[in-house]
Write a structure and sequence with these properties.
2 helices, three-stranded parallel beta sheet, 67 residues, alpha/beta
């Protein structure tokens, strides 16, 4: 299954753990960011991930926010 992942900076560490778990389960992961612990705006990553699911480019999406 192709899964879109996105997070803000506060959710970065959990997103990385989820990505590793999914890859171990042989899923294809498309990582939309954030790509570090540096402060970012969540919608910059959420929106492209949600569009990928809506367009059928990914079958599911997992979004992680630190809030």
């Amino acid at each position: 299954m192709k899964i879109a992942l996105a997070a803000d900076h506060a959710g970065f560490t959990l997103k990385e753990a989820v990505a590793a778990f999914l890859r171990d389960g042989k899923h294809e992961v498309r990582d939309f960011g954030a790509h570090s612990l540096e402060s970012v705006d969540y919608p910059d990553f959420l929106y492209p991930a949600a569009l990928a699911v809506a367009r059928g480019e990914c079958e599911r999406g997992i979004l992680v926010a630190g809030a």
